[in-house]
Amino acid sequence: MYQYDQYDQAMVDARVAEFRDQCRRRLEGHLTEDQFKPLRLMNGLYLQLHAYMLRVAVPYGTLNSRQMHMLADIADKYDRGYGHFTTRQNIQYNWIKLEDAADILADLSKVEMHAIQTSGNCIRNISSDHFSGAAADEVIDPRPYAELMRQWSSFHPEFSYLPRKFKFCVIASEKDRAAMRLHDIGIRILKNEKGEVGARFHVGGGMGRTPMISPVIRDFVPVDQLITYAEACLRVYNRYGRRDNKYKARIKILVHELGKEEYTRQVEEEFQHLLDQGVEPPYAELERIKAYFADPAFEEGLSDDLDLSDPDFALWVKTNTNPHKQAGYVSAVISLKPVGGIPGDATAEQMHLIADLAKDYSFDELRVMHTQNIGLPHVKKADLYAIWQKLDAAGLGTANLDQIGDMIACPGLDYCSLANARSIPVAQKISQRFDKNGKSAALGELKLKISGCINACGHHHAGHIGILGVDRKGKENYQLSFGGSEGEDTSLAKITGPGFDEDGVVDAVDKATDVYLRERQDGERFLDTYRRIGMAPFKEALYD
Amino acid sequence: MKILTGNDLKSGAVVWWTGKGWSIHVDDAVDAGEEWETVLASEEAERRVNVPYAVEAEQRADGSIRPAHIKERIRALGPTVRADLTLKPNDPDAIAEVV
Ligand code: HEM
Ligand code: SF4
């Protein structure tokens, strides 16, 4: 895992001191809220529905046990004993006091963490594949490239006041576990025929009000020109992005309006210009970073056999583990979606337990997943049973990965001041309904995603089943959509028709799954069946 | 009626204008009166409240106050999915009244 050098630590410490002074000046009245707001947002501090909300960055979702223990301690000491893991691989606390904010950042800095790049119109915390460095199917660990981009983008003066927020995602396998094509820039690290490492650039994706899937603008950027090419992409956007209209300010609109060809032409021109400007960090820096991400000391020659005689354990292994590149190991997923629970929430106690498990069984590494779960990337198969028993005893052993009960839900109107409707209660009711009717296992992979407003933090556009909360004459109402995906087959969901009330949308989801079970052919997921038969049969069942 | 709300500057807690000061209990809220914009301006300037604004509400027969919009009712009580975190953790009907 990456460790701060003196520059990283000095930057973070200086930022904490600066923010402490800004908080003091606000509390003493030297700064108005209008003056203070952009400053606190640069440090992840929002004002939300019930209090201040602090969003802490987890770069590319990677954490060690010390960091997770600290997150738990913060939940206990400064919040109300829990935190919410988000679709951007971060954590949010909902009950923060302004008086405590600087102390929290100081505590975080002790474990090489901060809340920089979690808000504002800058390059945000960079996300990645949650199984990076572990997955059997990856070409190379993408995190050193993500880390290089983190260092390049942190406090980058030219890109601190972009037209709008900017989200990068870096992956390195054909399978997309990170919604790469729904980011402003999605980068896939790959090898060309000569075996050289490079980056494929997808530019102009996003969710929100105008969802778009990013097109590829360059198939292969040599790895020693990665930052220069990214800088060229940003420059063109910074120059021409719509600053006059917040809803048209994301890069996806620019790429769409200019057209992919014209945008690409301008990027290439800028890139040629930048090539001799010394933008690219020395290759030695990438090599230095890479050393931190070297494989842990895996044991060689371990067996892949596993005793699956306990059926509950066998089920968990089947649903909640992912193949590892090293024989005898897997990546295991800790579900933060117990039946009827609040997706993504974890108590301080659970965080401590998860940290201990990482220390004891996963080379001290954890991953925050965009699916609002936590991954243990490097687990020996022989240890799985012990891990599962501990998780199960703590209510963390739910075996539902990628099933309907593993839905994503944003905080919605229970916590978020931008919301139109509540998301969490809908998630809870669906989870309970499908637990009771016993259909989950038969349904198999079914990704359901819920957002409380069109900002789409809950990725509803990319759900096999998506639910969007809207305000209909002052009442909560829910639009249903089918056919989205955020995998390598990324697609945007289509709305079924008129919306439903809270119970109505739960019934509608239930009915839609019946249509699927009736119509599906061998091996088809809900998504595949929908793609084959289209909306009509579903509509018939929903609106009769 | 119109009532005034905002957040406490230090704690961020949701607060309601009582005519004399700010309370975390919406039932303490009073009608904002004609001069409410002046009240907001001076209270904010004195840092007794942060980003205040006015919302519509009704006073019910028992004297309790119910903001017109669900968002404000959730602000007044707390999250509807965690009774333990609301202002009325022991009132089994509190959440049903909000939604
Ligand atoms: C509660 C405080 C939050 C606020 C105020 C907030 C605000 C926003 C806004 C305004 C957008 C739309 C940006 C645009 O399209 O230009 C957005 C998008 C997004 N947010 Fe949030 N959000 C919040 C919480 C969350 C949470 C909890 C998550 C994760 C569960 C999240 C993840 C995302 C994602 C993935 C997107 C869409 C991707 C994109 O197009 O950039 N946000 N958020
Ligand atoms: S989707 Fe809307 S309601 Fe949900 S967290 Fe984002 S901004 Fe809030």
Automatic annotation (TrEMBL), chain A:
UniProt-listed Pfam families: NIR_SIR, NIR_SIR_ferr
UniProt KW keywords: 4Fe-4S, Heme, Iron, Iron-sulfur, Metal-binding, Oxidoreductase
Residue ranges of domain Nitrite/sulphite reductase 4Fe-4S in the record: 119-273, 404-542
Molecular function terms from GO: 4 iron, 4 sulfur cluster binding; heme binding; metal ion binding; oxidoreductase activity
UniProt keyword Secreted present: no
Nitrite/Sulfite reductase ferredoxin-like domain location: 52-110, 342-393
Presence of keyword Transport: no
Endpoints of the signal sequence: none
Entry-linked InterPro entries: NIR_SIR_4Fe-4S, NiRdtase/SiRdtase_haem-b_fer, Nit/Sulf_reduc_fer-like_dom_sf, NO2/SO3_Rdtase_4Fe4S_dom, NO2/SO3_Rdtase_4Fe4S_sf
Xref: PANTHER family: BLR3264 PROTEIN, FERREDOXIN--NITRITE REDUCTASE, CHLOROPLASTIC
Protein name in UniProt: Nitrite/sulfite reductase
From TrEMBL, chain B:
Pfam families: DUF2849
Protein name as catalogued: DUF2849 domain-containing protein
Organism: Altericroceibacterium spongiae
